[in-house]
Amino acid sequence: MDPLYARYPFFEAAREAVAGADVSLPALVASDAPAVERGRERVERALRSGTTASETPDAYDVTAELLSYPIARILVSLLESTAAVEKYASAEAATAADRIREDLEREDALRSTDSVSLDLSDVLREFDLADAVRPAVRGTNGGAGSTGQVVEPHVRGGSSGRPSTRDPEWFRIDVGPYLQLFDAEWGDRWRLVNRELRDGTVWIDRADLDRCLERAARSRILEGLPFEFADDDGISSDLEAHVADLRRLLDERATVGSFDVVVPELFPPCMRNLIDKAEREAALSPPESLALMAFLTAIGMSPDEIVAFCADTSLDAEGIRYQTEYLRDEAGAQYPPPTCETLSAYGICHNEDDHWQVAGDPLAYYEARLEAAEDIVDWRDRNDVAEAA
Ligand code: SF4
């Protein structure tokens, strides 16, 4: 089995490999094969942490990892929650986008010895974008070449004929696919009027292309979801216990959102440490920024308020809006920030003064401190913030 399929189980070739394999998903579920536990982990991690990468990747072989994807799709369908399906698809796509970046950034020498081989042209072909996205070089004046001409750089040729140069930093994408891929929630910078449009193509940089590819992956993952099941479908009853666990996780949302007070002095140490780190202009890792955004969202801050709160930090407004959008469902409910245990596993929590004794998650700790405090003033009501607004 090609390890590439396990990393990108929604690729067409991976789906064909599953269809062609002599494997029965109901039998797999009935025997509680490793792919089932990994499938449950995929959905749980998607709902809790915004990723579907395993916390114990060495525990699963390539086949279990690949087959856990259809199992996860069955599980998330059984939750009967549109918000859960959307969060699951976003997490799968974000995980795939991280992997695509990792795999493409490897040097050719390294790549030739690695078991996974992926080129940008392979990825573009996968999403039917091979003809719509073309690499190009910007001129020194910041435009489409100093003479107004587009220069085509040497481009990787895909797994069937790979040149040795690195992928370029700029691309032109046909306006039709661009409009299909971008999301109005991404901010004004993405609106066509704010883009350089020439000969029916839009200029985008490498980071923009990564985001478009993540969007294409999300659309692919959402195809066919949620599944519908017959009442007497054996697979549903065999997965009942896993579904009940995941439903409990979804229900935790009900306990979030009762806050609507922002007192930074009373934030738990883990969140203060992350804010201090961002204020030193140090980049936060994806789990760090997700934990911070989940906490700030859960205490009732709007995306605009979070952008203002983080104005003097390394966090940029566009990234904040993107993450906070992920953390809210259509009804405006939020998912809770990770527990102290999870934050500890990521090295974010240092359990200062043994305050795990006080609370099991940062929200509960904050709530306890609010209850004990007197004369609190909401950050949003403070003079300097009100004047700046
Ligand atoms: S124990 Fe919990 S609340 Fe306290 S710093 Fe660690 S993660 Fe944060």
Automatic annotation (TrEMBL):
GO biological process: DNA replication, synthesis of primer
Entry keyword annotation includes 4Fe-4S: yes
Top-level division of the source organism's lineage: Archaea
InterPro entries membership: DNA_primase_C, DNA_primase_lsu_PriL
Signal peptide, first to last residue: none
Names of required cofactors: [4Fe-4S] cluster
Domain DNA primase large subunit C-terminal, residue spans: 262-378
A cellular component term, taken from the record's GO annotations: primosome complex
Keyword Signal among UniProt keywords: no
Keyword terms: 4Fe-4S, DNA replication, Iron, Iron-sulfur, Metal-binding, Primosome
Record region (Disordered): 138-163
GO molecular function: 4 iron, 4 sulfur cluster binding; DNA-directed RNA polymerase activity; metal ion binding
Subunit record text: Heterodimer of a small subunit (PriS) and a large subunit (PriL).
Family: Belongs to the eukaryotic-type primase large subunit family.
Role noted for this protein: Regulatory subunit of DNA primase, an RNA polymerase that catalyzes the synthesis of short RNA molecules used as primers for DNA polymerase during DNA replication. Stabilizes and modulates the activity of the small subunit, increasing the rate of DNA synthesis, and conferring RNA synthesis capability. The DNA polymerase activity may enable DNA primase to also catalyze primer extension after primer synthesis. May also play a role in DNA repair.
Protein's name according to its UniProt entry: DNA primase large subunit PriL
Annotated organism of origin: Halopenitus malekzadehii
Lineage of origin: Archaea, Methanobacteriati, Methanobacteriota, Stenosarchaea group, Halobacteria
Gene name for this UniProt entry: priL
